[in-house]
Amino acid sequence: MSGYPDDLNGHMSGSASGPLRADAQRNRERILQAARDLVHEPGELKLNAVAKACGIGQGTLYRHFPTREDLLAEVYRREVGELVAMAAPLLVTHEPLDALAAWFDRVAAYARVKRDVFAAVEAATWSDLAAHSLGPIGEAIELLLAAGRSAGSIRPDVEARDVIVLISWLSRLDDDELGTRGPRLLSILVDGLRPHRP
């Protein structure tokens, strides 16, 4: 049990029965975006700084996210959700290996958020978040790999877990390395996924 609600729209909405009102949803989105931006800044993320960046009162912020960890957990969960949701549409517009490469471009942004959020929350929280995100991310990777295996553009022996292990180092890179070394390393990974040619 994560301790965080599964219903992303209903969390602390003031209404347990349904989705947020339009203005409350806009505030929630602004809070999450501001927290995502500010978590990269040096020092501890302060909720009053998030409220100030959004131009809202602290009471409004606390109605959505009673604690700093609630907010940071939701920033991470949202990032995972957006990453996972990209996989299927990419397969509609790209060949499978190109879809995987485009998905990897988004993985670098996810890795930055993961690194900063996990550094800012308690170990028990990040461990729980990581455990709950592993399944959805693995499913998205498997969707992309399966399409590539069917098309013959991805080697048949690669498993989703292999890719997860290989991309996990991204969250250990600092911003400069993510910007310079990250794309090159992901390109090397894509090349390594191609089938062996005799």
What general outline do the C-alpha atoms trace? elongated
Q: Tell me the name of the CATH class of the domain at 68-193.
A: Mainly Alpha
Determine the CATH superfamily of the domain at 68-193: Tetracycline Repressor, domain 2
What helical percentage do the residues reach? over 70%
- Put simply, the count of helices is 8
What Rg is obtained from the alpha carbons, in whole angstroms? Answer: 18 Å
Overall strand count = 0
Strand content: under 5%
User: Uncertain segments of ≥5 residues (pLDDT<50)?
Assistant: 1-17
**CATH fold-type name of the domain at 68-193:** Tetracycline Repressor, domain 2
Summarize the main sheet: none
Structural class by secondary-structure content: mainly alpha
Give the termini distance in whole angstroms: 49 Å
Which architecture of the domain at 68-193 per CATH? Orthogonal Bundle
Mean pLDDT over the full residue set: 86
Q: Secondary-structure element sequence?
A: HHHHHHHH
List the SSEs and their pairings.
Blueprint (H helix, E strand, L loop, with lengths): L21 H17 L8 H8 L3 H7 L3 H26 L2 H25 L2 H29 L8 H8 L7 H19 L5
Tags for this entry?
198 residues, disordered N terminus, 70% helix, elongated, 0% strand, mainly alpha
